[in-house]
């Protein structure tokens, strides 16, 4: 087995974040056009959060099977980087392009209002390390 270099590990995982972006945008579109008119805003947002968490897990599982992260430290670093990129995109796009106020953007993180979105950046940070550990423990046939 060849030893992975830092660039050979990071390259695919940084590109993989683009997959996260595509999943999030598709999920938001589905929420806005389908589930929110049907279920109402609060339920649709909660459902969209669950859908994105599942999709994110699937993406990380798939990517890790193809480009395993060699160390736990790298997995945590990738999760932290993905989270920083996600938050930078979310608040950058929301504030600079969509013209949303900080209070509007931060409202999605208010658990007391039934908003579960905070679970997305938390899971984005954890997923690479959790999936890495799960795949290391899983029998070869299950991977």
TrEMBL record:
Keyword terms of this UniProt record: Membrane, Transmembrane, Transmembrane helix
Residue spans crossing the bilayer: 42-63, 75-96, 116-134
Name of the protein in question: DUF3995 domain-containing protein
Organism name: Actinomycetospora lemnae
